[in-house]
Specification:
five-stranded parallel sheet, two-stranded antiparallel ribbon, Rossmann fold, alpha/beta, globular
Length: about 150
């Protein structure tokens, strides 16, 4: 069991089930979990003759993500530990995950694999970035939860 985990969310339809499995199986009852969703930088949105600035698009996307993650965190708080949410704007999910993991001193970065190839690549990017950035002797495990683990849980 881990005392502090970071769950990198990816907007898949199964992500909440994956997060619940992670909560049940990996987070200590007194531990703390962080749900992270990384929003790509917004581009201006043009509708008819009106243009919505990029920062407003980002704010709207972040607000929507916070609401969705907030509902999930409420469900997770009933399963195990304490949960909170973070939403960040970045071009790199891996970099943002690593930066937050180091800052928050997490023991585990976990993610649900709805698409094995993309998730495996993301996990590798996170591991490589951790190797570069993490202060020594830091140890943060990176774990991918696969669909078959959901089926057996």
């Amino acid at each position: 069991m881990y005392q502090r985990i970071l769950v990198a969310m990816d907007k898949s339809t199964k992500e909440s089930e994956g997060a619940i499995i992670i909560a049940k199986n990996f987070l200590a009852p007194t531990g703390e979990g962080i749900l992270l969703e990384v929003i790509p930088p917004g581009a201006p949105l043009t509708v008819s003759i009106f243009t919505v600035p990029a920062f407003q698009v980002e704010q709207e996307n972040c607000a929507n993500a916070m609401v969705n993650l907030g509902f999930l965190a409420d469900r997770l708080n009933q399963v195990s530990g304490r949960w909170r949410v973070k939403v960040a704007v970045s071009n790199s999910v891996a970099e943002m995950s690593v930066d937050l993991a180091i800052r928050e001193k997490v023991d585990l970065i976990a993610m649900y694999a709805h698409d094995g190839n993309d998730t495996a690549r993301l996990a590798k990017l996170i591991e490589d970035s951790l190797a570069e950035k993490a202060p020594r002797p830091a140890f943060i495990e990176v774990r991918v939860i696969k669909a078959r683990e959901l089926a057996t849980a």
